[in-house]
Amino acid sequence: MSIMLCRIRSMLTFGLAITYLTNVFIASAVLNNFNIFIMVVVILLSLPAVTGSSRIIGYASLAVSIILLLIYQAPLNIWKQAIEENIYLVVMFTLVPLLGIPIEHGGYSQALQGTFQRYVNTNKRFYLFVSFISAFMGVLVSLAVVPLVYQITKVSAKSKNTKLLATAISRGFTTCTIWAPTTAAIALIVQVTDIKWTEFFPSALFCGIICGFVGYILNRLEDKRLEDKKTDLVDISEKPFPGEFKWAKVIELCGFGIVLIVSIAAISILADLLTIIVVSLAALIFPVIWMGLLKRLPIYLQVVKKHYFKVSLPKLKNEFVLFVAAGFLATSISYSHLGDYIPLLLSYIVGNNAFLFSVLVIFTSILLSMLGVHPIITVVIIGNTVDPSFYNISSTYLALILAISWAMSVTVSPTAATLIAISGITGESTITIGSRWNLVYVFTASALMILVITLLKAFGLL
């Protein structure tokens, strides 16, 4: 029975994504009401299946939101608004896993494994390569990046160094979490701050580069303190290459990734569509074109049928519940006007000083995340209640603060999905990976990014 309900949930979620995107262009009131009905059914089917900290956070957020809406006697249209608030996130997250199919089944894994065995024979190279691959693939496959990168890296003896592997993957993924339009963080932040991703992208990408630089420097300092063990060294001559090594496949993968990002940006500007909608459409269409050019379209269709609907979509239940709960929370706080007290509290602590506001929001989010509070709560509350003009900052500046808060928080949070996945492949606890191995990195990168965006604002560039 549970398997049947899981399949029904997957089919309904995919159907919701298709009808939602269709309605973007035809704007039918009937179809909109139908989407709300399907969304309610998907929520009801997802709630019993959600697990872990997402269950606690999701249930608590929904309970608080429903109580507030009932106490303040919210009319039916407000309840509908709460359901619709983050429906676009559910749609995007439903379709984004399709982007991972060409990477896994397009012949790229073997080429990347060959790269590891030929060139990645020091800790420095391993960290650089793994963090870069995690950042690049994180743009395309989001949370699925952890098992995918692990499959590629395990051919290297360096992957036995759990600290090196865990920090490289987690920090690499952090760099794309700050700017990539395919991630849940940026999709939500763009919505709550009401900005265009194309305006936010340059500064956010620069912050991502800063994160990558800080991670690399800290890794080099760690390397100088601890000499490599002889058992960690790879004798390349003793290990056969996994098939014929071809640089062409690596270049091809990079090319497809660049075309995807450029296409998303160009279509968003030229067609004047929300970036989230463009990402969802790209996830639906781009893999078909990609696998078609590779003459592997039958493989794509087979994977969609056997893996996407039966494995990928069911795994997203936790994210779906969190998105819906965050939407309800945002609506209830706004309607009840309780959110009016948040700016008052912030102004009491930091006045209207933009620098102190940045420090307070980012480091409070990090500390709360270490206690298990998901950054989606911080982003929703701050994004929906704070008026940027009070601090003499732009909406883009506020979006950057929220993006940095989210990215840094999930890098140390013991309940973050990425750290849980990394914990599974390394055998280390999420507290060890987050609070012990990444805390210095997070504090250093956060401080440097706050300094940079403050300087950009001072020079009128932000």
Overview of the structural elements:
The chain has 462 residues and is mostly helical. The chain folds into two domains: 2-52 and 75-94, no CATH class; 98-458, no CATH class. The chain contains 23 helices and no strands. Helix 8 (123-141) packs antiparallel against helix 9, helix 10 (162-177) packs antiparallel against helix 12 and helix 16 runs parallel beside helix 19. The N and C termini lie far apart (54 Å).
Task: Tell me the layout of helices and strands.
Blueprint: H1 2-26, H2 29-46, H3 52-71, H4 76-84, H5 87-95, H6 100-105, H7 108-119, H8 123-141, H9 145-153, H10 162-177, H11 184-193, H12 197-225, H13 247-270, H14 275-293, H15 297-315, H16 317-336, H17 341-350, H18 354-370, H19 375-385, H20 395-412, H21 417-426, H22 430-437, H23 439-458
Helix pairs in contact: 1-2, 1-5, 1-15, 3-16, 4-16, 5-14, 5-16, 7-13, 8-9, 8-10, 8-12, 10-12, 10-20, 10-21, 11-19, 11-20, 12-20, 12-23, 13-14, 16-19, 18-20, 18-23, 19-20, 20-23
